[in-house]
Design a protein that fits this description.
Helix content: 10-25%
Shape: elongated
Distance between the termini: 35 Å
Strand order of the largest sheet: 1-3-2
Number of strands: 3
Largest sheet: 3 strands, antiparallel
Mean pLDDT: 88
Radius of gyration: 14 Å
Number of helices: 2
Structural class: alpha+beta
């Protein structure tokens, strides 16, 4: 069993080209990055007309807490 973060993108229409959308361009760029502080892209696609990207959950402190501690 794996914990994930599901990022929902824009609702798609039949005329839109989801693979060319900024949402999926960013997902492809993120998938190319390998770093312990960057979540891994597990899946991306469209379901029920809604774009999504599934990311691996990163363990650690939330960013807002880290920034407050500075």
């Amino acid at each position: 069993r794996r914990e994930i973060v599901l990022c929902l993108g824009p609702q798609t229409t039949g005329s839109a080209a989801p693979a060319q959308s900024p949402f999926f361009r960013e997902a492809r760029l993120l998938a190319a990055v390998e770093h312990p502080a960057v979540p891994r892209v597990l899946d991306a696609g469209v379901d029920g007309g809604r774009a999504f990207v599934a990311l691996g959950l990163l363990e650690g402190e939330p960013l807002d807490q880290v920034l407050r501690g500075r």
